[in-house]
Design brief:
The relative contact order is 0.14. The protein is of the alpha/beta class and about 500 residues long. Bound molecules: glutamine. Glutamine (GLN) binds next to loops.
Length: about 500
């Protein structure tokens, strides 16, 4: 069956655009119509930018006519509302930033604009990217396009839901402990968290600066490689971005798996794993074996301490990063306060939502003198152990494969009152960030209830090319990358 334009991939549409069979204005209008049709059920957007999108599309058509622009020229994208976009409201899913309109673009946005990409809007997220279900957003909760009674995953939930439902062709999200990979897994799309330092964080509103990384969400693996090509590379504006060479990630996709050693970390297949998730991931592993990879078992013994360490380190960094939202320079201010202290207190207590407050309290406590050694220092030591686990594993194999989440997407509201239960869903994604490694998720099957199941691939620093190659081989073997959710309109 021929896919509608809004359901197609970047590389399919790029061909149509560059051969002038399609204009970006036509494509953008189709995507905007799709948003009109499905947004009432899905709710992925915080801010739509229709006029901007159409003017960017017209400019892209001119670039295309002159043979200019990059591979993303004319492609409609959505952007997680954590990235600064010049002249377009940026909320970070929070009331505390209202009415912030950034005076500058994040570096990744500048790079997309240079290519001639089109931005259809800013999409939903958990407030300050804190969450795994996108139920912590001050502007409503997006729904899973495969079943709107279920969560779409978080914190880049709007990105994943908008890609899956054809409300954009691809998106950018951010991943501090799994926030690109989890929603990608739950919505049946491809998502990547690049190596820490691969993609500039300039203009990314900070959650936990030693863990945050921007990454693409796309409809297939080739699109993921194209997006990484566009956004990756050194940026003098981010002192943690690395001067590592940027290969063309699309060039090696189909170079095959022979000679490749793939590790199965046994800790990721423990008893709590949902049986359908286990079966789908094991099927993926056997397909990789058939494709020529050697499969070996490895151990990452400190995985079980990942959640405990992360939920000290991330809140500690957040408590410091979020201190800037004090009602003084920008964002929300309680105008009724009569003293400076009252203004600080009430602006912050009215502006932040409950999960963000919980993290600020946790992080401030963990960093307070007298507790620092017991919590932050200990967590940092565990972090080193986790890094060493990976170093050891990568002497035996080129990449690690596993599930992304222990279960498929749960029902809306199921864990909303139980933060600890939600934190546990991060068990398989968090250690990657603690070690700064690249990882990705791609769809590997569906539960009997029709919900997507994701397959995770983690690799050594700066080996995104290896991950993409494995993902591409699996995607070819599975043959499910053209499936789209059955959204009734
Ligand atoms: N679920 C994790 C958290 O709430 C990770 C979020 C993220 O990656 N931004 O902190």
């Amino acid at each position: 069956m021929e896919l509608a334009l809004y359901d197609q991939t970047i590389h399919q549409l790029q061909e149509l655009l560059q051969s002038k069979q399609l204009s970006s204005v036509e494509l953008t209008n189709q995507v905007l119509n799709r948003i009109d049709q499905v947004e009432p059920q899905i709710g992925a957007f915080i801010t739509e930018c229709r006029d901007l999108a159409l003017s960017q599309a017209a400019a892209a058509d001119q670039m295309l006519a002159k043979g200019e622009g990059g591979p993303l020229c004319g492609i409609p994208l959505s952007i997680k509302d954590v990235l600064c976009t010049k002249g377009v409201r940026t909320t970070c899913g929070s009331k505390i930033l209202e009415p912030f309109v950034p005076p500058y673009d994040a570096t990744v946005i500048t790079r997309l604009k240079e290519q001639g990409a089109v931005m259809v809007g800013k999409v939903s997220m958990d407030e300050f990217a804190m969450g795994s279900a996108n139920e912590n957003c001050a502007y409503g909760t997006p729904k899973n396009p495969w079943n709107t009674n279920h969560i779409c995953g978080g914190s880049s939930g709007g990105s994943a839901a908008s890609v899956a439902s054809g409300e954009c062709i691809a998106s950018l999200g951010s991943d501090t402990g799994g926030s690109v990979r989890q929603p990608a897994s739950h919505c049946g799309v491809v998502g990547m968290k690049p190596t820490y330092g691969r993609v500039s964080r300039f203009g990314l509103l900070a959650f936990a600066s030693s863990l945050d990384q921007i990454g693409p969400l796309t409809k297939d693996v080739r699109d993921c490689a194209m997006m990484l090509n566009a956004i990756g590379g050194y940026d003098p504006k981010d002192s943690t971005s690395v001067k590592e060479s940027m290969p063309d990630f699309t060039a090696t996709l189909s170079s095959g798996l022979s000679g490749m050693r793939i590790g199965i970390p046994k800790e990721y297949f423990s008893e709590g794993l949902d049986q359908e998730v286990r079966a789908a991931v094991e099927n993926g592993i056997s397909l990789l074996r058939q494709a020529g990879a050697e499969i070996i078992e490895v151990s990452l013994p400190h995985t079980e301490y990942g959640i405990a360490a992360y939920y000290i380190i991330a809140p500690a960094e957040a408590s410091s990063n979020l201190a800037r939202y004090d009602g003084v320079k920008y964002g929300f201010r309680n105008q009724d306060a009569s003293t400076l202290l009252e203004m600080y207190k009430t602006s912050r207590s009215q502006g932040f939502g409950p999960e963000v407050k919980r993290r600020i309290i946790l992080g401030t406590y963990a960093l307070s003198s007298g507790y620092y050694d017991a919590y932050y220092k200990k967590a940092s030591q565990v972090r080193t152990k986790i890094v060493e686990d990976y170093q050891r594993a990568f002497t035996a194999c080129d990449a690690l494969v596993s599930p992304v989440t222990p279960t498929p997407a749960w029902r809306l509201g199921d864990k909303a009152d139980d933060p600890l239960a939600a934190y546990l869903s991060d068990a398989m994604t968090i250690c990657t960030n603690l070690a700064g490694l690249p990882a990705m998720s791609l769809p590997c099957g569906f539960s009997t209830a029709g919900l997507p199941i994701g397959f995770q691939i983690q690799g050594p620093h700066f080996q995104e090319g290896t991950l993409l190659k494995i993902a591409f081989a699996l995607e070819q073997a599975l043959g499910i990358s053209q499936r789209r959710p059955p959204i009734s309109t």
